[in-house]
Design goal:
alpha+beta; 5-stranded antiparallel sheet; disordered N terminus; membrane; transmembrane helix; coiled coil
Length: 376
Amino acid sequence: MSSLNLMFGVGKLSPKTFLYARSIARLHPSIINVPASIIVRYNSQKSSQRKTDLSSSSAPSKNAIPEHIRKTIPGETEQSNSLLSRLPSFPLRSSQTLTPKPGVPTSATTNLRTMLEILNKKDKPELIYEAEPHKLYFLVCGVMAFIFSVYGLSFTDWGYRAVWKIYLEDDDLMMFFGRLGLCSLITGVAMGVVYVSLSLPTRLIRRIWFIPANKKTGTQPMVKFTSHPLLPGTATPVYTMPLENLQRSHRAKVFTRNGIYGTHDRSTFFFLLKESNRKFGYWMVDRNGWFWGDGRVFDVLFGKESLEEAEKGQSHSEKLKEASEKLKEEKKNVKKEYGVMWQEGASGKMLKKDIKDIVEIVKGQQKVSLDDKDTK
């Protein structure tokens, strides 16, 4: 109990604030660093009115939450686009800074079907994802852009000098223009890589909102998300589109059973979402962010998986393994049924089935033609 009394404020907290602080302390004990002199005493004997307030709302009010704790709640802080916000801070850390959002169901207490029902019953846009700060992404992309800029400029300087020197020696104008074009092409490739490196952070999704379908107006489910602007200090790009237009790759899997939300993966630190109506409409989602519910919700929304398939949480390799084992089992049963000549027996059975299907199709076409004659 003494560990629960070390909280994040001075004075007495309401029961709902105390319970929320206790949940944070259990899930993320590393982010709470409070001097031992700051102690909050929780009085368990509260009035019935205070108990009624506790049952009416499970999340504390914004005013009751200290600023350094509020910044860890998804959706509560304003995401900056300044140049300083893109520069990494040292020491570099990869640990999570976002805490589970109050009032959002989790897989520990709610099954997948109920979570999806709660999400679809929302009457306003619901925040379902928020990324951790992308400072490391900016660092990697900046380093790549710098390296290819140096290589590109160095090659340009050397290449054009060499082309001009060769031209002075052989005085071949046709070859001069050919070599000049080749140098320009290689320089263009390097500059293209620089541009891609600088623009790559604009494809990183920062927040995602799910907009439920409205039966009264007949609108379909929508999704809204934000990314980074190309130039620091400019407005945050906001994109809104139908949910069916944003899809996850059929081979990728959001839910991996690893991490708080079951989204961590050892091989990849992000997964891709693609706009179905655009050829290069790819967006990157960091797996180390905060997810509404868990990764299975995203497999249903963006992977278009059925509820039963998402509940299994099988990866693409696990599905292939299961299909292979099922095929081996069927092959074993066929061998047991037909014996040594199992291949001929299975082929004969398939041939009989195909002939039966063809006969039924022919009879159906004849019946349709007779009905047409009777109508005429």
